[in-house]
# Entry
Amino acid sequence: MFAVALFALLPALTFADDHPLRIGYVTAQFGTDTAAFDPLTRYLSSFLDNRPFEVVPLESVEHMVAAADRGQLDFVVASSVGLVTLMAKHRVRPIATITLASGSELYPWLASAVFVANQRNDVRTLEDVRGHRVVAFARRTLGGWLAAAREWRRMSIDETDFASVTFDLTPPEVATRVCSGDADVGVLPASLFPAVAESCAGGFRVLPPPRPNDTTLPVAVSTRLYPEAAVAAIGRLPEQVVTRVAIALLSNGRESPAARAFGVAGFTAPLGYTQVEELMQELRIAPFESFGRLTFTEALRQNAGTALIAMTLFVSALLLALLRARKLNAQLAFSFAQWREADDERRQLESQLQQSRRLESIGRVAGGVAHDFNNLLTVINGYSQLLLMEPLNAHARDEVQQIHRAGSRAAELTGQLLTFSRRQVTDLVALDLNTVIRDAEPLLTRLAGENVELEIALAPSLAAVSGNVSQMNQVLMNLVVNARDAMPPGGGRITIATEPFTASSDVDTPAGLAPGEHVVLTVSDTGIGMSDETRQHIFEPFFSTKGDAGTGLGLSTVYGIIRQRQGQIDVWSEPGRGTRFRIYLPQATQPTEAAAPAAVAPRSASPSRRILLVEDQDDVRAFATEVLRAAGYDVLEAASGDEALRLARDGAPIDLLLTDVVLGGMNGRQVAELVAQAHPSARVLFTSGYPDDVTAEKGVPRGAVAFLAKPYSPDALIARVSELLDAAA
# Structure
């Protein structure tokens, strides 16, 4: 996700092709009124330089596939089943998964709710449904039938085992038949069941799933969870178009007009749809009708004669080739071994250099993006806070709060970009790694899937490590997902373990690991493993073995986080024997972080205090000036270092210089040194939206000078200025 966001935030791009982008959807799912999509298309168009969109209604998934075959679609809004059907024939890239709402909670999952009337005591589990009358929402819908059908199939129950099965009923019709006794069991999508749950005087009871799901899902379900419908790109659209549409959807707030156009709560990062494909294969849903029917053994039996001849020829050719190769190898063994050793070392050094250059390139682009966005967010968040201080009616206050919340989320995204590129100092605390793993275990179990056993083996006494809980959870999730995707069809086991470790010259340690006490986090699996060639590239950004299904950023993100903590990663893997990641983290030296003291309101400004404000961004300068003057300060404005020096030399006393670090011409540090010659008692407050390493290059290392990071709020600005001026008094 970070790479997608990073390149989408680059300066405005132009596209060679400006034809309307066509969005296809199935009318049975989202209705026939294409005008309802106008808020969505207007919103997306604003992210693509007002490029037009065209909504294409389609009668069924089959019609959607046909339209894609003819090249008539650029994007689709498709159910999980529809999306997997398209993937069987086309290059489909999911860019956002739909989220639903239950009260204040959002969730991107769907499942079946299999329910009976409360007074029915003869049906307590899914297996008890055998021999009863069943009514269901729709045969081809995942939540309305297929998820439940898969559970019954695994119990060796199919439709012939029921007294009757009736499909294509509305949710109220399903509930009415079960309540009245015309049917024994009802099947509805879990998201639709709450709407009819109270429609029966005696009430309904949802049958529990054979294996409990994550308890955080806010609706009752009877089956395992599957990802919701998604928005996806089809074909070979320019990457910048797909990226901008993805960012537009993921930046969209809850219950926005664009989300309401779909009748959903919002959008989240795209989930994996492998489980849906496995369900369709297992139930032999088109286009997987023949899946599993013709085995390799049966094909070999049907073509035994041809296969025997081909195998004999192949083995003969192989033996001749092996004999010839053995003879050549005996002659060249010594020289080839030396050459291979040298070549392996060269490849490893080239790989490390390439990886470092790619990470550095991403970091530089992220720093520029962060600077521009932090300037904009200073103005957006600052003025929205000023408005919230004014008397507003309830409606206007709510709208301004929405603006401020959106700005705060954008500020968090900018911070995440810098953390990914290892160019921002994050908040660090002393972490108990065992506690982090235990807290994340329910989520990790769900990510691993039902065919994968998750084993936790934690050392009984473990020292703390310095880190960030959110980042450590990201490391665990990325490694577990990577292990899960490497499992063979029959499943396997993932083991998460911790142990103390002392690094010294007497023990075998990864290259670059500093001597001393460490904590080792091990994540191993019994998957298919990988070759040495693949292992050499796994930490490179954008390297993926999953084709279009992978971003290539999971393990490079893990690498960035661990290296930022001065840790090291050791990887072992062999084809067919699994993979093991061992992460070495230094023990923490700082104590557990104490609660921050309560903020103290700044004292009123003295009218005699004069501030020289140097900021080359007009809107940021106007905002800061308004805040400072409203607090009672006399403010001199300068748009450049040269203008600031002219004002400083006019003779009026200056109590504080507030300057941006990166300016056109001379930088903030140079301005501060020259102003100090005319006003040696003036205090200096630096501000910047650039990452830490850029400000340090300009001679302003954070922690060594008075610094205020962008975006800053009016309260933060006044408090910092008051603190410096009061200290000088």
User: Anything to note?
Assistant: Residues 301-420 form one domain. The first strand starts at residue 21 and ends at 26. The chain has a mean pLDDT of 81.
